[in-house]
Design goal:
Helices cover 53% and strands 0% of the residues. The protein is mostly helical. The longest helix has 13 residues. 3% of the residues are buried. The mean pLDDT is 77.
Length: 99
């Protein structure tokens, strides 16, 4: 008596080859669904994050910082009054708290 795997091969020639090729095809793609490519910003990523993503793409902003733009602004407002963010230097300006 033949085994069931032999029966499968007899009725479906090339099944193992087909499965192997399908697996190769599946692993040759990084993504199963198409995705949109994010363009690299001309300026620094921080500038892109604060000027572009925060204003127009809040979901991406949230994905990068793990907070919404509103929460980010609230945090900046709270910490900006702390003396650690002051600079009395006449030669080097204080970096904005947001940055």
């Amino acid at each position: 008596m033949e085994s069931s795997s032999d029966d499968d091969e007899k009725y479906r020639p090339g099944l193992k080859t087909w499965i192997r090729e399908e697996i190769k095809h599946m692993y040759c793609k990084c993504y199963e669904v198409p995705h949109t490519r994010t363009l690299k910003p001309d300026k620094s990523f921080l500038h892109h994050l604060l000027m572009t993503l925060k204003a127009g793409r809040s979901k991406d902003f949230c994905g990068e910082l793990q907070v919404s733009p509103y929460t980010f602004d609230c945090l900046v407002a709270e910490i900006s009054i702390d003396p650690v963010f002051t600079n009395n230097s006449e030669t080097v300006p204080q970096t904005p708290v947001e940055e």
